Structures
1.
Amino acid sequence: MRYEQEFVDGLYARVDALRGDTEGSLTDALAQGDTPMQARLERDILVAERSGLLAALNSVDGSLCFGRIDLADGGSHHIGRIGLRAEDADRTPLLIDWRADVARPFYLATGHTPMGLRRRRHIASEGRRVTALHDEILDLGDETRTGHEDPSGDAVLLAAVNSARTGRMGDIVQTIQADQDRVIRAPHRGVLVVEGGPGTGKTAVALHRAAYLLYEHRDLLAKRAVLIVGPNPAFLGYIGEVLPSLGETGVLLSTVGELFPGVRATAADTPEAAAVKGRAEMADVLAQAVRARQSLPDPVIAIEHDREVLLLDDDLARVARDRTRAVGLPHNAAREHFEGHLLNTLTDMVAERIGTDPYDGSNLLDPSDITQIRDELAENPEVWAAIDRLWPRLTPRRLVAGLLAAPEEFLSAEDAAAIRRPVTRRWTVGDVPLLDEAAELLGEDDRVARSRAERERAEQVAYAQGVLDVSYASRTYEFEGLDDEDAEVLSAHDVIDAERFAERQEEDDHRSAAERAAADRSWAFGHIIVDEAQELSPMAWRLLMRRCPTRSMTLVGDPAQTAEPAGVGSWSKILAPYVEDRWVHTRLGVNYRTPAEIMELAADVVRAADPSFVPPSSVRSTGTAPWVRATADLPAAVAEAVRELTPEEGRLAVIAPRELHRALAAGLDGVTEGAEPDLTRDVVLLDPRQAKGLEFDSVLVVEPGRYGTSDLYVALTRATQRLGVLHTGPLPHGFAAA
Ligand SMILES: Nc1ncnc2c1ncn2[C@@H]1O[C@H](COP(=O)(O)OP(=O)(O)OP(=O)(O)O)[C@@H](O)[C@H]1O
């Protein structure tokens, strides 16, 4: 133990020294103030790098080194949250990052397949103090003993799964199990589906996979960012500290409801509305809604021009519309074509009227006259009013709000009734994929994009000018009105070329990749991880697939826990439209959360509906059976049960139907409830949907007869230690034994 303590002390000394250096260079860099452009650029890159390093160094305090492997050939490695090297000439490795290949046997080696190891040691610590060692001998012929043997090899794992919960998920880097490790490091580049029952570590594995991928493919992923999608904001709060604790900050955590920049979903859909909005057919409905806005005169539009009236009829407008549609561009991008066609049509009308030779019917106007007529028409507000009526510029918000206000044109009476609502500024989670789909169909107005591109180019040029002023102070170039020839001159001198312009421009944007991604609807993520993937609707999948053109994705979920009416039942149904059958399926089968006694009750409930159901097997039993009690006075019984179940250390959740919350909260001191409850409080009141993905030391489930099977299954599998059930009404099937 003394040796390990001294070794760990040495590591912390190295971390402290590095931290001091990093802080120092960061302070120096920030103090540089207004410097020439080139120096500023370098300074900013340095600041970003150092800030990331500092975050990683700060995050490891307390559990820097947690393991050691002794090799059969006599060497050994210490394993930790980050990699550290000595300051010697060889930069000798002191601590191996858990994600490095060298560390892998720490997670995988067994007596049967020792992978070159003689011994595996888990090092437990509190703060910087080493508190215990747990050794597993992997070379069965090895007689040496350390006095810290852990014959079953699971003391550290059991201590972790039995520890009091904090209301925030912790990392599992010390005790990743072999089947989990295989998922975390899976080399598959396409879609990887990870399925498993409650508590099998799907969320934990998904987060560690993000950290692993960022380590393994840092160049690519740090630039493109990793997106992690979770079911609701409370869940994202719950898992939000895992990656920072592993030193990773380059990740965007988001719900689907937050993935349309500028929109926050604050309203709720009825289950019927969510189901209709989530269907894949809504993509066609939106496409029809866009086409319906490309209208025709009914029967004519009269345009006053040059003291005459031009009558634009339905046939003429139809020709312009058909030609525009044939271009195949999104609606707003196509509008420029419509304008052109319509102006040509009107120009022909005017030219015919004023230019026709009364004797032979030929046209007397020359091309410059025609151009003049067109220009005059283009200045006439009535022409533009007609164009706006026939091919209006549309925003996704306007289109979707319009569709929801009057859906009967496109949907059956029943579906229309489910989603109809007055135009409002409040959006639901189910609206977000519709907005995103609408944005795709509408496209950007090309001119807006072009003028932005021009502005950006001007900025780039100005920026490059600054850089060049520094690097080539003796030469001056005139960048204003830079044309191709000038650009040639520049690249010929190898001063800076167009690509470098763009790079510099990117470098000059000091937001992290994750921050930029959050603000950009068209961002392509390097990898997407979806937790509770079974809940997403086909429309939500369309949105996510657009954000990940490479289809590099990890999807974790449990179909038995599907609650959302719009959720998709089978992985192949979800994935076939995007990757056909080119996806890999893996399964996790051990439940690390729920003790066997509780799992048995939960499994009975599902089996009552599906006799073929196979639950995950629990890694431990506690000897404490769950209890089920009938009561006539629910609030009083809940208050009493809460007193009974509240753990000395840790958290308790009361899971009850939403409509009972107010009555129950009144009898519970300091309980938190609401849309985004504070999960770090001792007692939290949740409805079953909110409980999804979370866990507590003790759980009290109220009125189980009012839940559907999957919601009840979720509720019953949230406890790590104790479960109580209170009911006034009849019990659901499956409770018989309890
Ligand atoms: N290898 C492990 N070592 C220690 N704890 C683990 C390990 N694997 C999972 N756990 C713990 O088990 C609990 C359940 O994990 P997690 O929430 O990831 O499961 P899940 O499969 O996502 O469950 P659910 O489907 O019910 O949301 C967590 O507390 C997690 O830290």
2.
Amino acid sequence: MHLVDSIAYFTIIDYVIFALLLVASMAIGLYYAFTGGRQRTTQEFMYADRSMKCLPLSLSLMATFQSAVAIIGTPAEVYANGTQYWFIGCSYILGLLIPAHIFIPLFYRLHLTSVYQYLELRFCKAVRICGTVTFIFQMVIYMGVGIYTPALALNAVTGFHLWGAVLATGLVCTLYTALGGLKAVVWTDVFQTVVMFTGQLAVIIVGVHQAGGLSDAWVKVRDGGRISGIDLNPDPTVRHTFWTLGVGGVFLMLSLYGVNQAQVQRYLSSRTEKEAVMSCYMVFPCLQVALMLSCLMGLVMYACYGNNSPLEQQYITSKDQMVLYFVMDMLQNFPGLPGLFVACLFSASLSTISSAFNSLATVTMVSTFSAGFHFWMNSSFKEPPFITFIFKNVVFRFKAALSIFGMVGGPLLGLFCLGIFFPCANSIGAVIGLAAGLVMSFWVGIGGFLSRMPSSVQVLPLNSTNTVPAASGNITGPAVIDAASRPVGLNGLYSLSYMWYSALNSSTVVLIGLVISFMTGKKHGPEELLIVLYTYTEERNQKTQLDSQKPSNSSART
Ligand SMILES: CC(C)(CO)[C@@H](O)C(=O)NCCC(=O)O
Ligand code: NA
């Protein structure tokens, strides 16, 4: 799968820049392996000695769920359908305020080691195990998507062996994560975020220049109808509207920034609760910059190609290659810049995979080495054609990543909400609620996937007329659902926008959880339980604060 021959391949400078990224990431890992407490305690390895400051944490929080999938997927989406997707930025407000003022204070004061410990304190061990298993499931699938995307990119640009790139990423990532612990993960995230932003910015600047300058570029995207107005269509089956993005997106954000172990671990590693809240606030501008850069790249791509997409000209064979083709096309006279962009893609994914590794290591309390090793082994299996199909299509991957957050993260969010906001909920309700949420999620998610399958395969030739969603709610990305067939009944449920998955599935858990709790009756004063928990942990916090002033000799790293 190579780009056409007219496209310049990597030069030596490009390889050097790309290698520098991997070397620098390794170096940061090694630095934290040999400084500070040398990663000898779980406190340091998992929680960076609870000494992190807000700026690196916020960049790291942003980087965790920003992988190459978003960097390639968002521009492809904006190129095809305009800037409607940008409205997801609205969901960041509540999606970060709620974690900052509800989840962080609770988790921070409970002095948890893993966020799933809350489930044990609030319900029982069984609920914790169910929650943990669900989380592992979510992160492993997500990592698969995240690791595959930049490998595919490198393969397209350089012909570098696909699974070789997957293994190289896995290996580098595993090493620095295992050696340097959370400190290394956070500081590589910071470095990788800088590389990510620089790479995107470079492409945008060169692209605007090629399109004839800012004002020309603006006129082209405006006349091409790529600047979308706010779409207030209340129909929940329309993929991207203000409601699906701005409201459905809040639930997506809550599942990621409120209750996901990778993020909670970062909040918990802050020096103070205030600093944790601040870092959550700081994620807002960081996420907005990331969103802006990827949307701008889509617009610049449109300004350069208009409706003569390289796909239509058959220079490339899938939407997947759109951004890469654009990058190679624009940057071929700038040696080093293609390398910078590939480094940008790998940065985005390394920062995601390392966070996932570290959080998985924490919840399972097995070493990162073994988590990495298992993943590495799994990823070297030959994948079935079905999976290849999903992975090879970027629009699918983009949707897949966000769908996983909603399908598996959503029920988890529901489980936590059930515990936090409903004192009357009991353990049986929690377990059955979670199960119901997962069933609902896979029913709707897979049902939706299958019912859209035929139309998703076909590639829609871009026509020269305005295809902005506002004018045509039936445009669903690359696939067009027949305008006449407004889905009814089960099909209506199946065509629910994937942006609502998190909201639907978390509500299912809460509702079913409450019903079962009422049915199974007698609760042992759970209202008091939280108060007891608070007082208990207040005392323990004071004790640990005293303890931490003494030199620690807690258990060795697992
Ligand atoms: C999850 C959000 C929406 C958070 O802003 C964004 O980072 C995104 O679109 N992520 C896609 C998945 C990924 O890049 O791995
Ligand atoms: Na990332």
